[in-house]
Write a sequence for this structure.
């Protein structure tokens, strides 16, 4: 039982870090405004590669959550990412970024596609250098998001339900900014 809880906690931490990295990489590279998702409950299936099983995350959004996240994480992205380029495509956007977080440099290519009203996908291909043991030199992360309807009664905007039932609020993650090391 304890092993399972530790594994779920580790997966949740890895997933949180992946989502935070995707936010950071896309938040600071905005020559145009990213579309907001339809308010309500989004179910996001995250695949971190063959080493880990797919995970389901639920996130409750409202009219301001996405804009608040971009505003909050944009300064952090500019500090951590020396190079960012965002281009609009016919079906979404592409972000190329070089970011350094805690001594690890990640060169990534992110493809975001969808209408943000019913579904969207995110594919992040990364090459990492200076990574701690256990972090692959190359990785591909896939996120497949679908709008599931209204948020549940016990959820508020920004709530994310992680694997294993752990609930965090993305607005509370802003506190993480102060915990990340400076370049």
């Amino acid at each position: 039982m304890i092993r399972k809880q530790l594994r779920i906690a580790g997966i949740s931490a890895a997933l949180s870090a992946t989502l935070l990295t995707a936010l950071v990489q896309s938040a600071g590279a905005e020559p145009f405004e990213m579309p907001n998702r339809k308010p309500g409950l989004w179910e996001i299936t995250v695949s971190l590669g063959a080493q880990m099983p797919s995970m389901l995350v639920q996130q409750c959004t409202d009219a301001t959550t996405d804009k608040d996240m971009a505003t909050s994480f944009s300064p952090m992205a500019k500090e951590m990412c020396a190079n960012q380029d965002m281009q609009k495509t016919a079906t979404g956007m592409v972000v190329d970024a070089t970011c350094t977080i805690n001594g690890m440099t990640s060169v990534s290519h992110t493809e975001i596609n969808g209408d943000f009203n019913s579904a969207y996908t995110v594919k992040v291909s990364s090459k990492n250098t200076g990574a701690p043991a256990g972090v692959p030199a190359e990785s591909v992360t896939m996120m497949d998001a679908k709008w599931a309807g209204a948020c549940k009664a016990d959820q508020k905007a920004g709530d994310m339900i992680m694997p294993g039932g752990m609930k965090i609020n993305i607005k509370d993650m802003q506190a993480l900014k102060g915990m990340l090391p400076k370049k």
